[in-house]
Every structure is written in C-alpha cells, then in structure tokens.
Amino acid sequence: MTILKKLQAGVTTTSADETRELAGQLAGILPADTVLALHGPLGVGKTTFVQGLAQGFGVTEAVTSPTFNLFILHHGRGRLLAHLDAYRLDHPRQAEALMLDDFLVSPWCLAVEWPENIAGWLPATTWHLDLGIAKDGRHTVRLRKNEAG
Predict the structure, then answer these.
(1) What is the pLDDT of residue 25?
(2) Could you tell me which residues come within 8 angstroms of residue 48 by beta carbon, excluding any fewer than 6 positions away?
(3) Residues 39-98 pLDDT 10s
(4) How far is it, in rounded angstroms, from Cα 38 to Cα 104?
(5) DSSP readout, 21-38?
(6) pTM of the full predicted structure?
(7) CB-side exposure of 37: number of CA atoms within 13 Å?
(8) What structural domains and CATH numbers belong to the chain?
(9) Comparing C-alpha atoms, which of 55, 49, 50, 111 is closest to residue 86?
C-alpha cells in the first residue's frame, strides 16, 4: 500500500518517532510546490509531523514551532520547507501580508499549522491532513480523500 493510500485510510502512530517516520515517507513522494494544511487541536503532533517532513527533505537543523516568528524557512537537499504557524492570525489578509510567496523558491513545501485561521488564503490544491489523539492516547493522521489527487 502506498503512503498516500495509507494516509487516506488513516494511520495510527504510537510514538513521536513513528509520526516523524510517517511524515518522512510522505516527504519522499510529495510533489514540488505543495501546501500541507495540518489540522488538529493543541498538542496533537503538528510540529512533530513537520519535523518528520524536514527529516525527509534532508533538513539538518532543529525544527520547532514558529508560533512567535509566524514562519521559519528550512533548507534541505534541493527542497525548501516553509513552516507557518497561523495560530495568531485571524484573517487571510494577515497571511498575505507575510509575503511568503517572495520566499517560496521551487521546489518548496509549505506546512501550515492552524490553517483554519487563514482558510481563504490557502490554494485550492492544498493537501489537508487531520491529526488527532485516539481515546487510548495514540495519535492519528488522515489525509482527506480527493484532495491529494
């Protein structure tokens, strides 16, 4: 089963390392110039998922939440990862004011935490991932069907 089919069916992970591994696998097949919207409540593992993407792209520096910076750029092996935390944004115009487009040099991936805060700014081609925590404490990741081609 391909990583896309797994994610569309929904994956449960038992550790942060498993979540990072899953994201690293996605990084390996992610088309250039893709926006990933990471949905889920506080503490669900959105930044952990981005850490795995970064590892998959060959980023060697530490990846932390950009809550206070709003976004951070990470350079990997031939790939740029832009990590945006929209938690403090409350309108799509605020995302436009960040001028992210000026920093997105192909091939890039833009990972957006709290995408619902800037939903009107996200392109129609955005891939949406729902992250959650099951009753037993394990983490879940699901790629919404029909949104990743």
Answers:
(1) 97
(2) 16, 19, 20, 23
(3) 999 989 999 999 999 999 999 999 988 777 788 889 999 899 999 999 988 888 888 888
(4) 19
(5) HHHHHHHHHPPSSEEEEE
(6) 0.91
(7) 19
(8) 3-143 (3.40.50.300)
(9) 111
